[in-house]
Amino acid sequence: MAVLRHEMTLGEAADLLSHALPGHRVEILQGRLVVTPPPDGSHALSLTRLGRRFDRAGIEEAGLEHVQGVGLWLPARPDDFAIPDFSIVEDDFRDALVQKNCYAPHVFRLVLEVTSSNWSDDLGPKVESYAEAGVPVYVVVDRKHDEVLLYQDPVGGAYPKPTRYKRGQFLDVPESVGVTPELSVDTLLDGD
User: How far apart are the C-alpha atoms of 115 and 3, rounded to whole Å?
Assistant: First the structure.
């Protein structure tokens, strides 16, 4: 009797995990599956307050939108994609659908991640992947090390060294994003 074996692709495994772990974020970064737990209250509140800041700064008038949890297709590898916590995108970003609810990187102006228990992914593979994809601005709200990192203007698929912001400071959102709200590092880190 013959037994047929079906080897699951990475994309199929990601789909299976997404259905099996509601509320978790499943991504493929540099050819490996990454599963992120649901955000805690401070993480979620930080993103809510961030959205309000961009609204007050006139994001709609600038032809942009802020979105949470929208997939970003990472073209360096065939199955790679990320689901950033928060993004600033062109208002017609839905026209740039690639597949699996992921959109082409050229519609993203800013991507922001708030670190969780798997903080090393935000500070390693995502820095490399977002730079390779040409995302102009990447912000890491690094709760593990109590600072905010600003990466911008990738060259040759890599970001130059980040600008580091400490408590009591305000993040300088680059003008290339299209809107420049005043963002408190303390609020980004704590959600307060």
Answer: 44
Q: Which long-range contacts (CB under 8 A, 24 or more apart) does 104-108 make?
A: 104/73, 105/72, 105/73, 105/74, 105/75, 105/133, 105/134, 105/135, 106/134, 108/72, 108/135, 108/136
pLDDT of 175: 95
* DSSP notation for the chain: ------PPPHHHHHHHHHHHSTT-EEEEETTEEEEEPPP-HHHHHHHHHHHHHHHHTTTTTTTEEEESS-EEE-TTSTT-EE--SEEEEETTGGGGEEETTEE-GGGEEEEEEE--TTHHHHHTHHHHHHHHHT-SEEEEEETTTTEEEEEE--BTTBPPPPEEE-TT-EEE--GGGS---EEEHHHHHH--
Whether 150 and 139 have beta carbons less than 8 Å apart is answered as yes
Query: Residues in the chain with pLDDT < 50?
Result: none
Whole-model pTM?
0.91
Integer Cα distance of 162 and 176 in angstroms = 16
Confidence (pLDDT) at 2: 59
